Amino acid sequence: MDLSLQKLTQALSLRQQIAALENRLSTLFGGSPSSGGGRKSRRRSRGARGPMSAATRAKLAAAARARWAKRKGTTTTAAKAPGKKGGLTAAGRRKLSEAMKARWAARRKAGGSSSAAKAPGKKGGGLTAAGRRKLSEAMKARWAARRKAAGRK
């Protein structure tokens, strides 16, 4: 293989032209020009990393909590106030219960139960005993045919 100086300089010139064209193309489509000359990056992507241990996740979470506490100006040792916030009071629950009972009573009075709201003419669903038996026999025949075919191979 004859690699003269002229061929090497010509190859270098072509490589530089290709890199310049790739940079122009990437800037044309809004990307940032790559400095690698079209080669793949040696760094692995975020999804290609292996699983993280529980201890490492805990350390990262503690560091993140500390950063947020520092940013907000609070300490991480301050515990949350005990007890449940929000929710329904007994009076609110009673009022809601009465409203729902009144709504259900009005629906029953109007004759529109939730099961009657379904499309008319449709059965309740499920298989009849005869249909279930027919399906079972068809599946058994199919499985037998598969077992027979697998036995021949």
Provide a descriptive summary of the structure in words.
The structure is a single chain. This protein has 153 residues and is an all-alpha fold. It has a domain at 9-33. It is 58% helix and 0% strand. It contains 4 helices and no strands. The protein has helices spanning 5-28, 54-72, 90-110, 129-152. The chain is flat, with a radius of gyration of 36 Å. The model has no long low-confidence stretch (mean pLDDT 81).
Blueprint of the fold:
Blueprint: H1 5-28, H2 54-72, H3 90-110, H4 129-152
Give short descriptive properties of this protein:
mainly alpha; 153 residues
Give a quick summary of the entry.
The protein is mostly helical. The chain is built from 4 helices and no strands.
Structural class category: mainly alpha
Beta-strand content bin: under 5%
Which stretches are low in confidence, meaning pLDDT under 50 for 5 or more residues running?
none
Helix fraction by DSSP (H/I, runs of at least 4): 55-70%
